[in-house]
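Aim 2 progress. For TerC family protein, the working sequence is reproduced below.
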Amino acid sequence: MDAPLWLWIAVLGAVLVMLLIDLLAHRHAHVIGVREAALWSLFWVACGVGFGALVWWQYGADLGQQYFAGYLIEKSLAVDNVFVWAIIFTYFAVPPQYQHRVLFLGVLGALVFRGAFIAAGSVLIASFSWVIYLFAGFLLYTGWKMIRQRNEHLDPESSRALRLFRRWVPMTDAYHGQRLLVRQNGVVLATPLLAVLVLVEVTDIIFAVDSIPAIFAVTSEPFLVFTANAFAILGLRAMYFLLADLIHRFVYLKIGLALVLIWVGVKMLLKVDVYYIPTAVSLGVVSLILAVSVVASMVVTRGQGRRAFEMPGEPPFRVATADELATSSSVWRRSTNVRTPAG
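Predicted structure tokens for this construct:
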């Protein structure tokens, strides 16, 4: 597939327009309910599926199947992101009305980082064919490790990125609305929301290390790899607000995701010199694994309702008081409360 430059520009422009629409729709901080999250999820899925239909119609069934296989893999692996975000937001006691701002900026960063990873992966595969073996081995190891550690969860307090941020970046201990930075007595300080954003970005980079090699197992077309990633990522925020309170019911999903990684790792190994598994078969196998893991999870946990994720202990941050908000200002405006030199 030789995607022309104008097509890349058109897709990037469409992504930016959709991000702008999302930003304008959520410019005021508010708690996103299940109904709103469901409608936005349907919108983003419709965009992703609609784009895949266009690829299928314009470039044929094989490339269309490659896109959908990559989209399904990325979308399913994104559920693991949702679980981690729920842990991060709960641990830091991020007010629900401010979570969308963090996720919006996190997704924006994810698009940039994943674009860089995809470009680097494409160059490596084109220049060194043996890299395929490294990718395949990494996917097999990651899948096996995910099965072994399926009951282990992220501990935000032990995050090296968080420790470094707290050590080197001066910050307040209270949330100041949706601000990432505030000015207090003439000094610019980070808010806890910026620390949360940094941790969200770091975890997404870690997830990208798994998901990018996985999608290269079903398609080697950089355009399809990027677009499948982009449309899967764009719906992550809505997916979080829709599924965050149901994560406890997906008891077998992690095993399903691990089997997907192992399957695409095996496919990548066979693809080199042994046998090319048709994309339609890969799409069917991935769909079957995910469907079985989700249905089995729902059956085992039937009767359980929505339940917010809970973390033990006191949250490390709090919400700023009215007096604190009054004595702080945005860093983008000149503060009237500026520290003056002595003497």
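The chain has one domain: 38-330. This observation will guide construct design in the next reporting period.
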